[in-house]
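For concreteness, we quote verbatim a single protein encoded this way:
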Amino acid sequence: MASIETRKSRGETVYRARVRVTGAPVITKTFPSKTLAKDWARKMELEIKEDVFMPTMQAQRRTLAELIDRYIADKLNHYDTPQETNKKQLNVWRDLIGSYNLAAITPERILWAMNEIEKIKTPGGRTKSAATLNRYLGVLSPALTFGVKELGWIKSNPAFNVSRRPEPNGRVRWLSDEERERLLAEVKKAKSPYLYPVVILGISTGARRGEIMGLKWQDIDLKAGWANLNKTKNKDRRGIPLTGLALEIMRELHKKRRCETWVFPNEDHSGPFDIRSGWEHAKQRAKLENFRFHDLRHTCASYLIMNGASLGEIADVLGHKDPRMSRRYAHISDQHKASVVANMNKKIFG
């Protein structure tokens, strides 16, 4: 219901439009003419009834910090696997632009914050890579979509209009035999009893860090030598074989387990242990350059190829949905074939 009031302001006649719709706050605005007031009132009534104006009101009242808090409480805290990395990245966004109301979270402001995130040094002293920045954007966007679809606080997701950083072609870095020995020697010395087993699992199975740290004892079949990854990056359930040293280590861990739920528990057993600090220190002591935990996955794939595995088998082990992900190892396969042929020729023909 709209009404127009005639008022005097500084000796001039003005017209105040007043719009009230059940379930929505009363809104008013003053105009120099009655026609303008009526036009605005009709427009506002229509928008409110179509539920267009309410998200605008919420976007002005609510901050990004409030949205992030709700998203963590209502969504991330109910995932079956730990979401600590996502929570930490969301809190970086919170620190940078969380105080702004949602109406002020524009693509330009998100881009500014991404540039600030890029400057934050990694534990190894480097700036954030394009892939890492894209992951930061990738964790903010679902939170904003949650604000659109489930809370109705904003009309659209501004992150959709922020371009992802171009990433270089698939990076492949793996451990040489010498590097592997240096790294294993250092992770054995770590204070954490879990770093060495986690690294062994990374090399022997090709599982991602989050997949390994999210393991629960209910996922492990020590008799069959098998671990089930129920929540993977691709949202599929995937199994990984446990053999040799990896299986021996898991059996030993089970005998000495401190927690009935998590394979690698933190101190209060509320979730998995955070290995990042120990990993960075061990990596530095082993003098590994340009190496990340994810490169243990590449190391596993490279070792498999050098021991006769096909690209299809690599895809199956690593859980690749897109064949192009496995094609990045094709050159290693070609090099290995060339080496095998060269050795054969040398042996036969001298």
Q: What stands out?
A: Strands lie at 2-9, 12-19, 27-31, 220-221, 226-229, 238-241. The radius of gyration is 28 Å.
